[in-house]
Amino acid sequence: MSRRAFSDMAVNPPRFRVRALTGAGGCVVEGVRLHGGLSTDMVDALNSALLSCKVLFFRDQQHLDSDEQERVAALFGVPFTHPNALGNSGAAMLILSSDTFSETDNKHPRNDVWHVDGAYLDAYPKIAVLQAVVVPPFGDTLWANTATAYRRLAEPLRRLADRLWVRHSNAPCLAPPDARTAAAAARFEALHPMVIVHPETRERSLLLGNLAQRIDGLSARESAVLIDLFQSHIERPEHVIRWSWREGDVAIWDARSSQNFTVDDYGEQERLMRRVLVKGEAPIGVDGRRSVAVY
């Protein structure tokens, strides 16, 4: 979608403005003070903007505390309790801190990989609400527009991707057995179509990321080659949105048509983020079949 298409969206009611950030997507929303009591009309307008932009950014939301942030997430659906949330058992809020993990606790402690949160579940979260509480001068976050990436595939590759199913696992996230509780170390795996059909827009998007482990029916080597081919295409600069954080910023993104990546260039400086995920439904592939849990 072009920059003009973003800026001219019909979701621009007089009460707020949506400004395109890049040609790949991402929009800055101006004139909105987020809180859990937003009107139905406002929520509908924001959801329409989200579907078009894939990621919405809100500056100067320092007034949000953790409870109110969870209420904001609840405007878009049911808050989701992440099964691997360390120290957050039974809670929808996850605190992402620069000192939460050590290198021995997690293979990618700072989310510096392209990923879709919870994609090892058959019904992975559909929306995320992330707020910056403490931010260093560096440590941007990137999002890739996976719907645009799909549309820009060569036609033979689109036809191939439409037929592929991929096993996603939380194996890359698991700590050694003695580093976490039994619940946190639980193994999850789901079989997803590589191309999913968005339940609201009907757009097709590529569902991959670092949790994608193997293509169903192919060898490990064949899988690795094809996953790398499609994932590299997703990561092309023209598909990517970049955001430089300020304290109080909020990002809301549609995980059904995006991946995200934290740039790990802030060293030992403190970085504290709060994230709430919203429950999703099992994706549907081009052939009409839904994702399934493997275990």
TrEMBL record:
Its cofactor is Fe(2+). Pfam families: TauD. Residues 28-276 form the TauD/TfdA-like domain. GO terms for molecular function: dioxygenase activity. Keywords: Dioxygenase, Iron, Metal-binding, Oxidoreductase. InterPro entries: AtsK-like, TauD-like_sf, TauD/TfdA-like. Belongs to the TfdA dioxygenase family. This is TauD/TfdA family dioxygenase.
